[in-house]
Design a protein that fits this description.
single chain, about 425 residues, about 30% helix, alpha/beta
Amino acid sequence: MAGKIKEIQQDQYQQEVLDKKLAVLDFYSTECPPCEALAAKYEDLSYLYGDDIAFTKIFRQGNKELAAKLDVSGSPTVLFYKDGEVVGDKLSGGILRSDLMRNLDALLSEEKVKEIHGKITPKETEADVVILGGGPAGLTAGVYLAQAHVKTILVDTALPGGYVATTHQVSNYPGFIEPQPGYMLSHYMSEQAKANGVDFRAAVEVNKVDLDKKTVTIDGVETIKAKKVVIATGSRPRPLGVAGEQEYRGNGISYCATCDAKYFQDKEVVVVGGGNSAIEEALFISKFASKITIVHQFDELQANKVAQAKAKADPKIEFKLSHEPREFKKYGNMDMGVVVEDLKSGEKSEIRTNGIFVFVGFIPNLGSFEQKMNLDQWGYLDTDANMQTSIKDVYAVGDIRTKAYRQITTAVADGTIAAITISKDFA
């Protein structure tokens, strides 16, 4: 095993972890994208910290008794130990290098931390193209570029898949007779990109992007220098800006039905919104919740007719049309309140509920770009027919760009067009 890392079995746990003064243990699985994203970081940090902290790995499925004993149910999961006791954070999923370092530093003296950090050497990596974002648009661009033998690195602050990975079901993507779970469709795309030779930097922190120089600095360590850049950073759920929303985000208010609907088995929820996302996600939540109240500002829903018909036929779903939320309240665990205003009468009332889901559209992810580019009136990137932005050799694809429709298929088309255009310059 590369790095200063020892792979152990559960019968070695006492000797190799608990009996060490300082240790770190990574529970991993095979065929696990988050584990793959962690592996390079874990290996790199083992060279820096491995003389002072025992770095170990253990195959979770092959050591189920220990995993259960330590309440480890997902891969990867990283635990930190001092004198045989678990300390610090329990890290899982898309683990960032900075979170690993913060917990490793906490095990050591200030002087030792300073010494180790002094050994960190910045590195440069060259590529033909760097893709920022691993949703369908970025992954498709990667597939086409790699197949054209264009050296491509894809950078994502999360795990590859984009927002599609949080969608419970995709029923209109060509090639699949049966609806596909969003996370599986994303997985197929990312695995195809890897198989074709795309080099991934997943679950990383992007420190700086210089679109003029075509450089991207990640994790404070690596600077990727490319000849061309593809921006595929997508968009994120739009907040309402209502009192209480920020305070209770993730603590009573959710923006992801796939992530959180399962926690509302036989509970009541409020869904804010009336477009495709709101209605389709409400139908998914209906599999768990006992009652759903949809709050929408207009007299009619804006979702497609098929989704509307299903929602109206669902006995669990009620509608509060021509209403808008004015405040979110929290009374206790799974005890929320939504103050709504009747837009016709101006009368306010409160809906008591167990949880709240907000689906009112998206805003473009442009926060990491310092250079100014041409935007439309809603803040999305303007491009020409070849996906070229107003900066030379910088392209934009997917939900980040101006377009009439934002669908997986249109994102894939954008990625295709940009990649073919770019590939011609490397022929």
